[in-house]
Structures are given as C-alpha cells and as structure tokens.
Amino acid sequence: MMFLAALIPLLMLGVVLALGRYEELLLPEENGDRLEPAALPPVTSSPAPAGTPAPSP
C-alpha cells in the first residue's frame, strides 16, 4: 500500500508533463506573428500658451 501511495503522485506528475509537452507540439507559439507594434500616445498640446515667456523682474 505504501508503494502505491508513492507511485500515484509520480505517475500524475508524468501525465501532467506529458500533456504540457503535447500542448507545445499541438499549439506551437510563433512570437513574431503575434506581437503587434506598440501604439504611440496621442499628441496633446500643453496647457500653457505658446507665446513669449514672461519678462524677468
């Protein structure tokens, strides 16, 4: 019975690893096609007027 208690988690780990490997083979990840270029933030004007600066005292 102790042998079975030690064997079941090892078998389950093997199944999980095998399924992960199967998923990688079934659904290959292509990084170049999935990535989109980053969007640039919209250009906004500053709240201050664009005139000449205030005279120094």
Structural write-up:
The radius of gyration is 31 Å and the shape is rod-shaped. With about 55 residues, the protein is an all-alpha fold. The longest helix has 25 residues. About 0% of the residues are buried. It is about 50% helix and about 0% strand.
Looking at the structure, what is the overall shape? rod-shaped
Radius of gyration from the CA trace?
31 Å
Q: Distance N terminus to C terminus?
A: 93 Å
Number of strands: 0
- N to C succession of SSEs: HH
Number of helices: 2
Largest sheet: none
Strand content: under 5%
Uncertain parts? none
Protein structure class = mainly alpha
Overall mean confidence score, pLDDT: 80
Q: Work out the helicity level.
A: 40-55%
Quick take:
By secondary structure, this protein is mainly α. It has helices at 2-26, 31-34. Helices cover 51% and strands 0% of the residues.
Topology:
Elements: H1 2-26, H2 31-34
Any descriptors?
57 residues; mainly alpha; 2 helices; 0% strand; rod-shaped
